Amino acid sequence: MSNLHTLAFEIGTEEIPAFDLHRATQQLEKLVPEALDRVRIPHGDVAVYTTPRRLIMIVSDVADETAALEEVFRGPSSKIAFDADGNPTKAATGFARGKGVEVGALERREEGGVEYVFATRSIAARDVAELLPGVLEGVIAGISWPKSCRWGTTSEYFSRPVRWLVALLDERVIPVRFAGLEAGNLTRGHRFLAPGPHEVPTAADLLGVVEAAHVVTSEQAREAVIRAGVAEAERRTGARAELPEKTLLEVVNLCEQPTVLVGSFDEEFLRVPEEIIVDAMLMHQRYFPLYDADGKLTNNFIVVTNGDPAHADTIIDGNERVVRARLSDAKFFYEEDLKHPLEAYVDRLDEVVFQETLGTMKAKADRIVALAKHLAADAQLDAADAADAERAAYLAKADLVTNAVVEFTSVQGVMGSYYAAACGENDQVARAIADHYRPRFSGDEPPASDVGRIVAMADKLDTVCGLFAAGQAPTGSSDPFALRRSAIGIVAMLEAGLPVSLSAAIDAALGTYENAGIDYDRDAVRAEVADFFVTRTKVMLRDGGCAPDAVEAVLATGVEEPAQIIARTRALEAARVDDPDTFADLATAYARANNLRDASLGAEVDETLAADAERALLAAADEAAARVGEALGSDDYAAALSALAALRAPIDAFFEDVLIMDEDRALRENRLRLLNRFVAAFAHVADFGKMAKGQK
């Protein structure tokens, strides 16, 4: 039995961008074992460790040699492989050539009563150490980066310049070459605390040497260090830190040995809106804000540093200077913006292009106002709320040209609400301005009021319809304008109870583009937009656990309103779960009736030709249709399904007692018309035939 070894491979670099590093870590966890398996190198577990300046792979239980392999391939039958004289045919020579053997080496064997030709190919064991340079060089080239660079006189590409390579099989150096470098046994430590170089005696020592040089080698370990430091900072200050997941991941991958420190800024800056302060610290500087027990922002913040902890005071002082400058700018911008009412900024939106074909943000603001008026009327808002919706729509985009939002883009909408309140707009208008970008993502809370939801829907629907009209609809995974997110937000607001018709709103939105003289094919775009929303609704339902057949059964009725699609699908699912046997029987009965019916005959039944079971089914179908109509009129889909479920007994009796395809044409066609009448009761609820198929 061969000896087993440890393989260690390190790619040392300049600092790799944080999110790129995270993606590379995930890639390497698959890339390394696949590269080893491709050349049949026996190995154990593969562990990946990464920091901003290095990618490390440790492979356990690597064998000395690949396993010898004998592969046997079955080819064509002997009758096809050889002619009547026993000479090989083109089929035999082609098969042999494809498997890399001589045609004379083919063997004949019987299998399943038929004689076939077989090719046997032997692959000898190979020295793993000889294979590893090519494998590891392939790993380097196999990492996919969003952006790559070249450096010096090299022709190779990587995320950042590669400065050293370590490749060891136990104590043996593997001569991996890349970008003018050859791997050795010398690594580097923390850039400031222990730069090195540091000798690595064996592969098993690599992690220990690196960690002794003040490097925390994994994302998980660095996050644990940061969280522990934050917890200690919270204990000392009595405050609570906010650690957004995305920012935390970025900070984790910006340092090799994280140290958590607490800084502060002048309390006078707390008079600036909280959102600007948080944006300045969190988004621009990657500092974590601290909140008191009442949830109010304090003048303390957390900074995670990669510097020498011995110089903590100097590091804190430097970061406080940075914060002071940023907050001074924010305070200045905020105070300058307040010198003018929010309405004064609306006309300046003509300076900002929304989309080349669709015009400026001022033109968009005008369309939002028109669409908000339509939605307010459709929702039957009272005069005061309708006026608030129109006013909020008019002002919603005004803050885009304010100093604060130009500098701190993530606070758009929020700053508009502050400026609106400061110049005397009422609370509902100010709140609607702040909320009109919501919901910003799946699961985000929608605006709190109908006024806010109307402004948010007007903004999002204008964007969706406009970009479809401009030929900028999403394609595949490409959605540069986040139209899918906008559609999901609209559907979520409709599901939450916004009482408007999406179909009518799409027409109104497209009308604003026609009125503006935008040239597009209205019918085609309308169909595309309607289908886009139906597709988003389907995805949301399936992601929420609804069965695909239930969704398709509802969509088969032609309903387009997302709120109705969602309510009907969930009612259908609930009925199937609550009484599965009855539901399955009803679906099967519907499918049987639907398959036999003849729509061309109509649904007028001659009762004088009907037997008892036929008359009973006719009466039941008419009663169910009436109850279904009433239920759908009040959006009570559970009641509609209950009315249809009552048809189970009469349809069972009908099929048991009546020969539908009677030789008498009058009887046969009358019974088929009765089936048409029965199926019609289901027409506006769901196509149960699709669910019956889904059950099989």
Notes on the protein architecture:
This protein has 696 residues and is an alpha+beta fold. It has five domains: 4-66 and 128-213, Alpha-Beta Plaits (2-Layer Sandwich), CATH 3.30.70; 69-123, no CATH class; 219-338, no CATH class; 352-537, Hypothetical protein af1432 (Orthogonal Bundle); 562-690, no CATH class. It contains 26 helices and 18 strands. The protein has a five-stranded antiparallel sheet, covered by helices on one side. Strands 13-15-16-14 form a four-stranded antiparallel sheet, sandwiched between helices. Strands 4-6-5 form a three-stranded antiparallel sheet. Strand 9 (177-178) and strand 10 form a beta hairpin. Helix 13 (414-422) packs antiparallel against helix 14 (427-435) and helix 15 (450-469) runs antiparallel to helix 16. The radius of gyration is 35 Å and the shape is flat. InterPro entries: DALR_anticod-bd (IPR008909), Gly-tRNA-synth_bsu (IPR015944), Gly-tRNA-synth_heterodimer (IPR006194). It holds the Pfam family DALR_1. One of its GO terms (biological process) is glycyl-tRNA aminoacylation.
